[in-house]
Write a structure and sequence with these properties.
Chain A is α/β, with parallel strands linked by helices. Chain A has a domain of 155 residues: P-loop containing nucleotide triphosphate hydrolases (Rossmann fold). Helix content of chain A is 32%, strand content 28%. Chain A is built from six helices and ten strands. In chain A, α6 links the parallel β7 and β8. In chain A, α3 packs across α4 and α4 crosses α5. A six-stranded mixed β-sheet of chain B has the order 1-6-3-5-4-2. Chain B is elongated and about 100 Å long. Classes of the chains: A alpha/beta, B alpha+beta. The structure holds adenosine-5'-triphosphate (ATP) and magnesium ion (MG). Magnesium ion (MG) binds next to α1 of chain A.
Chain lengths: 230, 272
Amino acid sequence: MKMKPVVVEARDLERTYRRDSVSVPAVRGVSLSVREGDYIAVLGLSGSGKSTLLNLLGGIDLPTAGSVHLLGQDTRRLSDRDLTRTRLEHVGFVFQRFHLLPALSAQENVELPMAELGAGRRERTARARELLEYVGLAQRIEHRPGELSGGEMQRVAIARALANRPALVLADEPTGELDVHTGGEIAQLFRKLNADGTTLVVVTHDPALAQPPAAVWEMRDGTIRPRSGE
Amino acid sequence: MIIILTALVALASVGDAQDSPLPELLLEARTARTLSLDPGDTVWVASLGSAERRFVVAGTYRRPADPSTVTLRDYRAILHIPDLQDLLGARDRVDRFSVSLRPGADRNAVMAEIDRLAFGAEAHASEEVADAASETFRVVSRFHRALAGITISGSAVFLLCLVVLKIEERRLEGAAMREIGISRRTLFLWTFTETLAMAAIGTAAGLAIGWAGSGVINAYFRHVYDTTLAFARVTPELALIVAAIGTLTGVVIGVFTGWQMVRSTPLRLREP
Ligand SMILES: Nc1ncnc2c1ncn2[C@@H]1O[C@H](COP(=O)(O)OP(=O)(O)OP(=O)(O)O)[C@@H](O)[C@H]1O
Ligand SMILES: [Mg+2]
């Protein structure tokens, strides 16, 4: 069977936070490849380095040593501007706290990354509506985040992450603010995304997000390996 | 001819009209109101050391809109000159007169001529007189300007505090926007525009409040002093100055806040 192309690849990745004289090694020697269509769930105790790893993979943070190749490009060799552009075009982010702009409607929030990329209004509107329908919010297009529940806000955030047809979607504790039931619905939405071809890396404590077809990786003290038995 | 009587000491209302027609006087409207006098009423008037005389109130008049006298709580009436002479026991005399010049006339020459012709007379240019009379108002005006300065600085600091609080509140939002790929440029523009809009709304609201406030102040004091004087005014120049200061403040603070949002990496922005 032919292997699918690699979307992001980490080699001997290290990230040490330095503050004054204290240095905290958050990621220590991680190597992994994420291929098109993968759904990877990263589990691990608090402080094990999951968020740090995700930031490195998405080009938000740069490694202290080792490398991240995001769509074939070494993130350390890109300027801040190019890295920002790469994130905009190719990576979708989903946060624990949603981070929608409160003044904008659901549709406008979804349009935001497309507008930044220079898409025309008509195209933006059409795609935003299509995406909101896809995540099950066809009826809430005009609502602002303040008028939506947590689960609904996260759906909008997911639609926003998909706006520019990213090669990779990274999610950090996407159900961390939601109750079990709503979290389950979001987990189901992630499975649907993946079934439709979206490449996913999800950092979580939530077992619902680590169900098949997710490949579960475990982080411990800055290192990563597939969960035993996989 | 009529003259203002300032040496008026007593005014009192008495009953009905008399057989022989009484001399008439005009009462200043505020005086009439304070003393509850109406046209047709008879009053006793006396000057210092003279006998009282009776007058009938022929009507009322409004005192001229003069800021230097508007707050005076004195009584005023206008009498015919013969009656006034009678009352004062003194002949008419002229203390002051004005000379209006044709355009192009040499004012200094005229003043010198008056000084030469009339011994003891002193000629003053109208500006000098106005100048001397305006000193109080100039002091008040300076005081107002100082107050305005303090108010404006205070408001600017207030805006700055508001905006700084807002940035604190919005750091995570800004960080998230940078993370999803919104450029520094765009984020700066958003923040800048928002701050400028806040300043503009504040300026507009300030002008509106100032305008409405001056209306209320004028209405109140015009009623109290029965005058047509304007006590507070929002002039176009003033509005322009306010708009300029508002815009300038908005731009400066907008640049500051925009810079705060984009100067560091998104991860830095997340840190407390
Ligand atoms: N900006 C930072 N400066 C210094 N140390 C940091 C910073 N961010 C993270 N760390 C440290 O790096 C380690 C890994 O942090 P990270 O946030 O990646 O963990 P995590 O697995 O995501 O934890 P959680 O499940 O609680 O979100 C922790 O020890 C943390 O204290
Ligand atoms: Mg984390």
